[in-house]
Amino acid sequence: MIELGESNRTTATGGFARWAAMGVVVLGAAVSLWLNFPGHMSYDSVVQMAEGRDGAYGLSGHPPVMSWLLGVSDALVPGSAVFVILDTALIAGALVSFIMLGRRVSWLVVIPCTAVVTFPQLLIYPAIVWKDVLFAAAATAGFACLAQAAAHWRGPVLRYGLIGAGLALVTLAAMARQNGVVILPFAAAAIAWISARSPDGPKVWRGLAHGFGFLGTCVVIMLGGSAGLTPPKIAPAAAVRGQFGNLQTYDMVHALVLDPSAQLRVLHRRAPWFERLLRHDGVAAFSPIRIDSLQPLMEQAGVHPDSTELIAAQWNDLFLRDPWLYLRVRLDAFSWVLLTPSVEECVLIYTGVDGPSDEMSDVGLTPRQTVTDVALADYAVGFAPTPVYSHAAYGVLAVVLLLGLLRRRTASDIVVAAMLGGALAFAGAFLLISIACDYRYLYDLDVATIAAALYVAATWRDDAGLYPRPWRRAAAKRNGL
Question: What pTM did the predictor assign?
């Protein structure tokens, strides 16, 4: 097995194959930029860019770091070009970094590299200006830095430089998505595990100190950065309560759709008008596709001064009495985001530029839908019936890869396993919060799995630990282990 911090010595063949595989990834990123430049912007993208230009981050309810980065990008070069280059570079750089970790890279690695760069997740998605893409790009690149730190642990300067870069990137990812914080414990656990296995001798206390120090630094930066970017007139706690209230309203209407006989005892006693609103207007307007159809209902309820308290009280009463109903609601909602069952109604891809007219005018954008944009969208949708465009397929592959990496347990394996664990936990968080079926929400799972698969493909000849038992001895003998 590879010792902690062992450098990536290679044979000549392994070196040439590695460079070829990395070249394919870089070429794929260049083609992606050429086809998509200067990027694709939807309603949310345009609103966030307008916030970034005005310096009023977070007004739309999105994490403020996204608007801030778009403002920085726009200040450097008007539009989204710099932001798109950043996301593309982070994803491609992460994949290249994982391939570099292989010591005996086979020429066969070029085949999966050539395949994945044609997937919509790598060919088109990096050029879509979405926080989901930023999250996936920063998270994957952050874990790639930590994996390199594990491989170069014996060099203190390089090690701490890579850990610092990884810390900054996973923190950025955590700030880019409301539930992105779930990846931080996985990154910290990887650092703790690797530090405890240091060549200086196993020391549990040292691993715990490094892990908690890493996690604490991430949290301090995340909280401080978010607070610093949020305008004073926005109360973060109130914004969170409002978003949670919307989720609770969605859950209750969803429950009434699944079980019309469900009793809303709190509303029936304290606000009969609200019960009628949910049972009639809410059920009639409900769609599992996204929560937007309930927006008029939520605006109407929001006029009442006690609506937030009423919603919370009724949600607790309903689902504490019937947790099975809550599980049914959440599983049904999660199935839509995990399986994206409707190509027509769930947003699989977005190309072109469009948004609210006022914000479009503010940032100097005009609607765009070129022949190339249409062709790219059609190309992506063509993958819809295949496992290439299936979060569930990536999830299954992620579990398989995770088990193999935990079996082998080299230093870099631990980081890649942590990346997969974080991606699966991030996806699993949508079991509690999913309110729409857009494909982008679980994009990180796809990218993390692709990165891990290329890493395993590049390192499978380095050690026999990933092989089933009948092949391990032969593989070890062939590789001189």
Answer: 0.90
